[in-house]
Amino acid sequence: VDTSPSNFIRNIIDDDLNTGKHQSIQTRFPPEPNGYLHIGHAKSICLNFGIAEDYPNAACNLRFDDTNPLKEDVDYVHAIEKDVSWLGFKWQGEVRYSSNYFEQLYSYAVELIETGKAYVCELNAEQTREYRGSLTSAGKDSPFRDRSVEENLDLFARMRAGEFAEGSMMLRAKIDMASPNMKMRDPVIYRIRFAHHHQTADKWCIYPMYDFTHCISDAIEGITHSLCTLEFEDHRPLYDWVLANISIAAKPRQIEFSRLNLQYTLTSKRKLAALIEENIVTGWDDPRMPTISGMRRRGYPAASLREFSKRIGVTKQENTVELASLEACVREDLEANGPRAMAVLDPIKVIITNYDEAKSEQLVAPCHPKDESMGTRIVPFSRELYIDRADFKEVGNKQYKRLKLNKEVRLRNAYVIRADDFKTDAEGNITEVHCTYDAGTLGKNPEDGRKVKGVIHWVDAKTNKPAEFRIYDRLFLVDNPAAEESIDSALNAQSLTVQKGFVEVSLADAVAEKAYQFEREGYFCADNTDSTAEHLVFNRTVALRATF
Ligand code: ATP
Ligand code: MG
Ligand code: MG
């Protein structure tokens, strides 16, 4: 089995199984449905679902952490489900929502009130901030902190009933206004929001806060190990406090790991949303986006993202991963699994003057030079072809192993040709190269022992299909775009360039998202949104070799 390498979290799990603390392992992946998943989420998905796959009797839940109705939408729910499935993972049972537990969460809040551990506070936002104090100074107790249990119960019930305005009241846990951990200074656990919720509609006008919701949801679901990123480290005492102070038996353990930071890449839904709002990209699934949907559209295989997650590992050290290592995973996968095909992105015409005008051959080419199981394809050949503009020069030095005037080159999967003449337009651009072919060189070397070193790709001019090629580059020129004050100055103006050329006819029915190696050009896939039979569009998934 292709299991993941060990890491400190798996070591903890191993211990918990060995000591008998747990008989089975339960994890969860808890996205907030307020945007699309990105490559950072892929790390968390692979970690949580990977544990579920690798341990016996283990499972992973998909839970939407949906306590903030203003920012959430059911479209995001569907996009997230699709992305997790596409990555190749199965969640246990039905999808879950924190909002499934609103009634239970409410009861636990009542329980905290009853035991004197929560109170309704009427400080406004500014006062609350002021009373909270700072890292260097203790906070002050709210004047509402010592309300009676009866009064708190009454006010909380009336908050739920919709009697009070937004912002006028909140429920706070009564912990310690002098705690060195700011999170423990009487955190808000419920607030009033007259907002329609994508799951619970208008049933609620009070919504629980993340820190109150998450730990209880974990406990309700029997989560054993609640894995989250390091910024939640100082939330852990609150996570534990809530569970210790309500009558719930399960005590899941929160463990933090470092988030994925990727060079040249933003990994924050909020910042990615801003790129869409500012029309810097076309949407969440723009192939330049580091979203799972963007990478899928670009042609990244799901397996390459899983491999990447495996390679970066799971630690508590903050670091930034090189974009090259993600691309290496994509390239390695496609080198092995991407069928070969030919496309000419910047075409000039080749006319084979000694080839019969009426003739056409159906040449057979392997789909992969090292993998016969991928089969063969038909590559038509006739008198007129296209080659890439960069593959012909009137004169070229020894290093230039392509087509030169009066010299020979091999057409990939076909014959050896010699350039005899060429034509130019008024500006001197080459428009046509006139060649002769050696009919005895199909699949073999010239009989007289002539050495022909170069090989170039081509497409047949009769049967080819016109295509648009979208060449993508990183969106940002700076290593850490998140640190920039203004994103605009960090943008790569060349993140998308479009070329118009031709593809071999076998690509007419290329399946969207499935990447091919266009020989000598790179890995490309048909665009899942814009490519049609009448107008083929191919995205460059990744270049053949590392470019940075
Ligand atoms: P964002 O800041 O992009 O909105 P988030 O953490 O708020 O991210 P959630 O939807 O809450 O987004 O994330 C779901 C899970 O994915 C959380 O457990 C979170 O810790 C994890 N996660 C988010 N970003 C990363 C990242 N860059 N690396 C690893 N895990 C991440
Ligand atoms: Mg979050
Ligand atoms: Mg967020």
Automatic annotation (TrEMBL):
Annotated ranges, domain Glutamyl/glutaminyl-tRNA synthetase class Ib anti-codon binding: 339-438
InterPro entries, A to Z: aa-tRNA-synth_I_CS, Gln-tRNA-synth, Gln/Glu-tRNA_Ligase, Gln_tRNA_ligase_bac, Glu/Gln-tRNA-synth, Glu/Gln-tRNA-synth_Ib_cat-dom, Glu/Gln-tRNA-synth_Ib_codon-bd, Glu_tRNA_lig_a-bdl
Domain of life: Bacteria
Motif ('KMSKS' region): 266-270
Enzyme class: ligase
Key word Ribosomal protein present: no
Motif 'HIGH' region: positions: 31-41
Catalytic activity, as annotated: tRNA(Gln) + L-glutamine + ATP = L-glutaminyl-tRNA(Gln) + AMP + diphosphate
GO molecular function: ligase activity
Cellular compartments annotated: Cytoplasm
Binding site for ATP: E32, P33, N34, H38, I39, G40, H41, A42, K43, S44, T229, R259, L260
Xref: PANTHER family: GLUTAMATE--TRNA LIGASE, GLUTAMINE-TRNA LIGASE
UniProt-listed NCBIfam families: glnS, PRK14703.1
Protein family according to the UniProt entry: Belongs to the class-I aminoacyl-tRNA synthetase family.
Name listed for the protein in its UniProt record: Glutamine--tRNA ligase
Organism, scientific name: Psychromonas marina
Gene: glnS
